[in-house]
Design brief:
The protein is α+β, with helices and mostly antiparallel strands. It contains 13 helices and 20 strands. It has a seven-stranded mixed β-sheet with strand order 11-12-13-14-16-15-17, covered by helices on one side. Helix 13 links the parallel strand 13 and strand 14. Helix 4 packs antiparallel against helix 5, helix 4 runs antiparallel to helix 8 and helix 12 runs parallel beside helix 13. The longest helix is centred in the N-terminal third of the chain and has 20 residues. The radius of gyration is 22 Å and the shape is globular.
Length: 503
């Protein structure tokens, strides 16, 4: 028995080092899908389907797989089970799982980044951050750890716009590692690359081909706009936890989250179920509060504002504004001003836009800003045209510079011009094909203002913005990149195009 335990420990060390040092990232060949799961099956999410998803691109190491199977059973049998459950922690110990979640990078600044993780024991952690430009090393300690409770470790005192690698140790054993680049200062001129997309669902979350291409493009951060990891669990909080465990056991997800700081917002499938929002029939305000608490625990965003999960943060020259287009809706007042974001969030958005000093602003919406696809199903136009008009008008009247709109939900990748009466044009980019799942038509019936369109099953792709401020006339370039690294679309917009002109 002693020899078996030693062998298990050696296997665990090898697995952790292989995943973090190599993983699948060194393999430039396309990895084939082992178990094809449909979106409908993923929404159902029973044991057989979730296990197929976990093994969809090859079997996991047996210790990780067994830990997942045992923990998922505990979650499914006990509505109140969470990651501190004594049986789950015992399973982690049995299978040599030092980390049962993370590391996940987030909240990147010019001098800091936050690491999210979930440990299985009270053993303290040491994190080393090494500046790759000068090899200066900083060391951070995390003690008083509650097993199963998410931890956030702030690596501060870093140099701006610098490449770092980090290593996480439990005692003297390295259990994880990754890399990141700190944000530039707001005054620094140069290039800043940002990736974004939506509709991973559980179908696409485990795709190593897509994650490999995202990592190869080397974005400084990535925005995920919804339908990411949880599929139609309604108010069954235990199964939300089960889906987050499925996410955290995925090799591709671990590689992505350990190396690219992520900013996330939810949409309907993360929230309750298809097209649901606010507090619909059958659910209560307590259900909504529980869902928000669950979201807070499992993501690594900047501090949220108000009662929802919305927030803003400046990353170098870019202000990222991520809206909560689900939980703050007033379903009984549909069509009335303020029903979509709620008045608190609507007012916060206006103040955030007016007060931002960043040259560029990205405003994300879980569902589309435009109403051209599916007759505006679940979009701003069928909910709150008055609030949308107020936002667009504010951008014009206040001459708010560098605004880009991004959206998801509609299972496709599209871009639209949104012309304004003043002659100013807003631009909306949707990259809802991270999962490559079926959806509505690629092109609108009237394509006058549509730049391009791909159906949900046509491509598996993500969006990219490159902000260039080192040239005399700053510009932003959008690219659409598929899971094989092919650039499907390229569109360049100047700073002047993205800024209303004063009259």
């Amino acid at each position: 028995m002693k020899n078996i335990n030693i062998l298990n420990k050696l296997c665990f060390v090898f697995v952790i080092l292989f995943i973090n040092n190599n993983g699948f990232s060194q393999n430039t060949n396309t990895v084939s899908v082992r178990n094809k799961v449909t979106l409908k099956e993923a929404h159902k999410g029973d044991l057989a389907i979730d296990t197929m998803l976990l093994d969809s691109y090859g079997l996991l190491p047996e210790n990780i797989r067994q830990f997942y199977m045992e923990s998922r059973f505990i979650f499914s049998e006990n509505r109140d089970a969470n990651f501190t459950n004594i049986k789950i922690l015992a399973s982690a110990k049995k299978h040599n799982m030092a980390l049962i979640g993370g590391p996940m990078l987030g909240n990147l600044k010019q001098d800091k980044v936050t690491i999210w993780l979930r440990k299985s024991s009270t053993a303290p952690l040491t994190v080393k951050a090494i500046n790759l430009d000068n090899n200066i090393e900083k060391i951070y300690y995390k003690k008083n750890i509650d097993p199963g409770v998410e931890q956030r470790i702030v690596l501060d005192g870093l140099a701006a716009n610098s490449d770092y690698k980090y290593e996480i140790y439990e005692n003297k054993l390295k259990i994880a590692e990754g890399k990141f680049t700190t944000a530039p200062t707001s005054e620094e001129k140069g290039l800043f690359k940002l990736a974004f997309g939506s509709d991973f669902h559980k179908v696409g979350l485990h795709n190593p081909n897509l994650v490999t291409q995202i990592i190869k493009r080397d974005p400084k951060v990535m925005l995920l706009l919804g339908d990411i990891a949880v599929d139609d669990r309604e108010n069954k909080i235990n199964m939300h936890r089960s889906d987050y465990l499925l996410r955290d056991m995925s090799k591709p997800w671990r590689y992505l989250s350990a190396n690219i700081p992520l900013y996330t917002a939810w949409d309907d499938h993360d929230y309750l179920n298809n097209d649901l929002s606010g507090t619909p029939e059958r659910f209560t305000t307590d259900d909504v509060d529980a869902l928000r608490a669950m979201w807070y625990q499992n993501w690594n965003n900047p501090k949220y504002k108000g009662e929802g999960i919305y927030f803003s943060t400046q990353i170098g020259l870019v202000e990222v504004i991520m809206l909560d287009t689900r939980s703050c809706r007033n379903v009984e007042a549909r069509g009335q001003y303020g029903c979509y974001l709620g008045m608190e969030q609507q007012n916060w958005l206006k103040e955030t836009l007016k007060n931002s000093t960043a040259p560029f602003k990205i405003i994300s919406s879980g569902t589309m800003w435009s109403d051209d696809i599916s007759n505006g199903k679940d979009s701003w136009g069928t909910w709150d045209t008055l609030a949308r008009e107020e936002i667009f008008n504010l951008i014009e009247v206040e001459n708010i510079s560098g605004v880009l709109l991004i959206s998801g939900d509609r299972h496709g990748t599209r871009a639209f011009n949104i012309p304004r009466p003043s002659g100013y044009t807003l631009y909306e980019f949707e990259a809802g094909t991270l999962g490559g799942v079926p959806g509505p038509e690629a092109m609108a019936k009237d394509t006058t203002n549509q730049l391009f369109g791909y159906a949900g099953t046509d491509v598996i792709a993500f969006g990219e913005f490159i902000f260039n401020t080192k040239i005399d006339k700053p510009e932003v370039t959008f690219r659409l990149i598929d899971e094989h690294g092919e650039i499907l679309e390229k569109h360049v917009l100047t700073y002047d195009q993205l800024t209303p002109q004063k009259k």
